[in-house]
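Look at a sample.

——
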Amino acid sequence: MTTRMAAAAAAGVLLVAVALAGVARGEDPYVFFEWKVTYGTKTLLDAPQKVILINGEFPGPRINCSSNNNIVVNVFNELDEPLLFTWNGMQHRKNSWQDGLAGTQCPIAPGTNYTYKWQPKDQIGSFFYFPSLRMHRAAGGYGGISVVSRLLIPVPFDPPADDHMVLIGDWYTKDHAAMAKMLDAGKSFGRPQGVVINGKSGKDAADPPMFTVEAGKTYRFRVCNAGIKASLNFRIQGHDMKLVEMEGSHTLQDMYDSLDVHVGHCFSVLVDADQKPGDYYMVASTRFIHEAKTVSAVIRYAGSSTPPSPNVPEPPAGWAWSINQWRSFRWNLTASAARPNPQGSYHYGQINITRTIKLMVSRGHIDGKLKYGFNGVSHVDADTPLKLAEYFNVTDGVFRYNQMTDVPPAVNGPLHVIPNVITAEFRTFIEVIFENPEKSMDSVHLDGYAFFAVGMGPGKWTAEERKTYNLLDAVSRHSVQVYPRSWTAIMLTFDNAGMWNVRSNIWERHYLGEQLYISVVSPARSLRDEYNMPENALRCGKVVGLPLPPSYLPA
């Protein structure tokens, strides 16, 4: 046995011991995963592609768990470059240490391993994970996360016959490292070459059938757009879809013949197998870009030998249809989510706004190279993760707080390329406005929280737009689209202490600086509000060799 294997085995014994100790203390159940992350070759879009595999699979293993389970993922990095995973939509209550981004965690070096431990605390729903450094996300390495309600917590629909994860996304035939080099050189990598569904494209997606159903039964499909640029329209030939959940919230159960799924977003739908037995296409098509791309997989009724009709339904046109569909989404106020109390018992529309942050997308060139940002600041990662620098009180020379203002600059000037960190007062209720002056779609995500997307519309936002807000039943979620030359408004309470990333889900924009971090510090410095740095946390940059700071106070 090699030294490394022995260390891994010892770590496994330690984790089992931790789990047994947790059971003895009455902790929530533990769910264990061990991932070997490698490169591999897979045929996509009729060409061999270099992809990131987890245990030889793409997509990676699905994480199935219940609310409050302790998720333990031991990641072995067999790539030739540093690696991190982020858990899109997991709020990591009190625990931004596990968020898996360059601003919160030192990377896992090649040939080493790191063990994540996190909880979907008071969460249910459909999510996904992906590798977060550089352009790894363009090479795969992603997989689904499904969190079901605990026993005795009512769910507003009957248990389905089966529960399927459907990961759709655009795909580029360029190598992810070549894509990063293009961006580093100030060039865009253009439009995607195609679309994949559960890691398959073309004929491979349609034969053999991806899913088999039995006539008369109802099935749940959790659909996530894990791509990097294109919004996708999702539909199932000959079948309507009942929307029941969106990124951790139960929704009003309206019927749709197709759904726009923007980058980073997840929906759950129930589909009745109520059509004439046969094969039917499940289709995902790009939206809002020229030269639309489509992928089709097959759903087969058990025992069928009837091929699908070649008449595949076309996607809708334009973004007016899409924004009207968004307006139809409503929070199910009477349904419980992860807790027994109804979702609607939280009256977000009656809380006073203490601060408004208006974030306008900035785009410019520095030394001839394309950059993106917010309010004139283009984020760049520091050598020392921001969270570690803050925790060890060594921020000097790493970053400065609040270099970006709460409103866009009155005059467009040159972009400032710095680590972009702003502060938010603990437990304050804040309104955030995103403005996208670009001609292309944007999709934004906030780690550590769910927010209420209360409004969106064309043009520039003004205070008058508040009259159009949905202050009753906007869906609580973690990602939202911002249409071209339009605005989107969200509201939330910053009650989760930590260092949290706000980012564009459009990975080219993210890579080029359209992101920032929000530092939320509890003045009590109590373990009630935030965990200490984990004992196994990796160290790098300025915190190597430093003594640990004093522990947060007991809860």
